[in-house]
Amino acid sequence: MELGNKKQLLERILNVFETGSTEGDYGNISIFHDGPGKIRQVTYGRSQTTEYGNLKRLVRDYSNAGGTFSLELGQFVDRIGVTPLVDNAEFKNLLKRAGREDSVMRPVQDKFFDEVYFQPAMDWADSHGFTLPLSGLVIYDSFVHSGKIRQDIRNKFAEVPPSAGGEEKAWITAYVKARQSWLANHSNPELHPTVYRTKCFKREIDRNNWDLTQLPINANGVDVS
Fold first, then answer.
1. Domain edges within the chain
2. Against a cut of 0.90, is the pTM above it?
3. 195-206 vs 7-19: helix crossing angle, rounded to 10
4. For the packed helices 105-113 and 89-101, what is the interaxial angle rounded to 10 degrees?
5. Which helix (H) or strand (E) holds 57?
6. Residue 190 carries which DSSP code?
7. Where on the phi/psi map is residue 215: left (φ > 0), alpha (ψ -120 to 50), or beta?
8. What are the angstrom distances between the C-alpha of 51 and each of 25, 91, 101?
């Protein structure tokens, strides 16, 4: 997918979705019941990676980078995703301080979120024939929020992707509608409020902003340009 200068815009919108700030809150910690079996887990960082997802890799990357808190956080690496740390005050405090006080953490997170979420999302978009910036935003958001383009959501509509002869705008429109219904009716009520994401995409679809040139874009109440 050729995004030109749109990558930063996509990242700023996702930063707002995840932490409320266009620049991203690198020390942000949230707790949700979205771990295995709906257990509570830590979500952390600029684009919020999870305790039972990729947080272990992020903390390992930071530990290897020799930051101010690398030694202390490094002692937790083998426990992340194995032993629940959601109530470990020391661990959470170290994460917050590393994100907000240590300049080393910022580039570590930028590289991590690019490699783990952005590039895989763009690879998926390319392999399925998507080319438009708004499509890239929708796909990238799904990789950050759900880890992938979920097949159970795709099964809810008949459109096929461009790589299979489908029409790009029709597929994205159908996917956003199906994903909004999935979020709004999920068995985990903590997902219900996150329809602000798909509502943002629907607004941009409605104003035909497929190239994301009509700015600002309202992302959950924050104007992003």
1. 4-224
2. yes
3. 140
4. 100
5. helix 55-64
6. G
7. beta
8. 17, 11, 21
The pair of structure tokens assigned to 176 is 């956003």
The dihedral through the CA atoms of 43, 14, 151, 121 has a sign that is negative
**Could you report the per-residue pLDDT of 153-195, keeping only the tens digit for each?**
999 999 999 999 999 999 999 999 999 999 999 999 989 999 9
Structure tokens at 191: 């997902």
CATH architecture of 4-224: Up-down Bundle (1.20)
54 in Cβ contact with 42 (< 8 Å): no
**Type of residue numbered 104:** V
Q: Which residue has the tokens 């943002």?
A: 200
Residue 182 tokens, joined: 């999935």
Residues in the chain: 225
DSSP 224: E
Token digits for 32? 């949700």
Tokens of 123: 């690879």
- Amino acid letter at 126? D
pLDDT at residue 103, as a whole number: 96
Count of Cβ atoms closer than 10 Å to residue 30 Cβ: 12
